[in-house]
Amino acid sequence: MSLSVEGLVVEIDGRRVVDGVSFEVADGSRLGLIGESGSGKSLTALAIMGLLPDGARASGSIRWHGRELLGMPEREIARLRGDEIGLVFQEPLTALNPIRTVGRQIAESVRIHEGLPRRAAWERAIAEADRVHLPEPERIVRRYPHELSGGQRQRVAIAMALACRPRLLIADEPTTALDVTIQAEILTLLRALVDDERMSLIFITHDLAVLGRIAAEGVVLAHGRVIEQAPVAELLRSPRTDVTRGLLRDAAATRWRREDPGEERIP
Ligand SMILES: Nc1ncnc2c1ncn2[C@@H]1O[C@H](COP(=O)(O)OP(=O)(O)OP(=O)(O)O)[C@@H](O)[C@H]1O
């Protein structure tokens, strides 16, 4: 098992916001964490990465290839981030430096983790931009984040996360801020990259329809607890809890609205 989370508890100001969460991610598998807002998805991911906010305390166990991550010294866990575990967040602007070209930022993440010389890292940045299907990679790497569209920025963030070929990618609502067409393109891209590299994936979303496109197994969280775990196809076909049924209704309603723009037309 590449990642094994057991009885994870996260407390903030004495409040248990993650309350005994357990799941496993096998090598090369795609797991989805799904739940309503505030159910504890992001804090579970942040605990895995050793990035919990100040004042949060984690207990239980998080093993990565047999090594316990909880309590690991910051220097060691920082090395794992990027080298072995990549991260993509909802808003790529928070991951990107506004005053550096995107090429320099991709090159930097390669340099830090692989120690490549400047020129080779720059060549790699262009190749990585191409790999995430950014148009005209040689030109786009010279641009600044604000000169790119939201979808292109998310492609840059994905390129940075994957430049060092991590074995696990954690993506926290990476498509939520994007419009539907771009969302679908990014999901297809992520799926292809994860499959090509035989990476494992933890994908976080509140949208069961999105999960259906990217993850094989789904873990449903509510109030910091796992309330249902099943193949995503099964969650979509026969949800067993009210929460999952609610998520399915929301997903269906959103899809219906998207497919029927006439709804918003003034008669
Ligand atoms: N820095 C913080 N300080 C205090 N409480 C927090 C903090 N971060 C999260 N929480 C609380 O912890 C609970 C779980 O939050 P978390 O962000 O993990 O939920 P989530 O399922 O990812 O929701 P969302 O989809 O809205 O991001 C929520 O009740 C939230 O208010």
TrEMBL record:
<dbReference type="InterPro" id="IPR003439">
    <property type="entry name" value="ABC_transporter-like_ATP-bd"/>
</dbReference>
<dbReference type="GO" id="GO:0005886">
    <property type="term" value="C:plasma membrane"/>
</dbReference>
<keyword id="KW-0472">Membrane</keyword>
<dbReference type="GO" id="GO:0016887">
    <property type="term" value="F:ATP hydrolysis activity"/>
</dbReference>
<keyword id="KW-1003">Cell membrane</keyword>
<keyword id="KW-0067">ATP-binding</keyword>
<dbReference type="GO" id="GO:0005524">
    <property type="term" value="F:ATP binding"/>
</dbReference>
<feature type="domain" description="ABC transporter">
    <location>
        <begin position="3"/>
        <end position="248"/>
    </location>
</feature>
<keyword id="KW-0547">Nucleotide-binding</keyword>
<dbReference type="InterPro" id="IPR027417">
    <property type="entry name" value="P-loop_NTPase"/>
</dbReference>
<protein>
    <submittedName>
        <fullName>ABC transporter ATP-binding protein</fullName>
    </submittedName>
</protein>
<dbReference type="InterPro" id="IPR050388">
    <property type="entry name" value="ABC_Ni/Peptide_Import"/>
</dbReference>
<keyword id="KW-0813">Transport</keyword>
<dbReference type="InterPro" id="IPR017871">
    <property type="entry name" value="ABC_transporter-like_CS"/>
</dbReference>
<dbReference type="Pfam" id="PF00005">
    <property type="entry name" value="ABC_tran"/>
</dbReference>
<comment type="similarity">
    <text>Belongs to the ABC transporter superfamily.</text>
</comment>
<dbReference type="InterPro" id="IPR003593">
    <property type="entry name" value="AAA+_ATPase"/>
</dbReference>
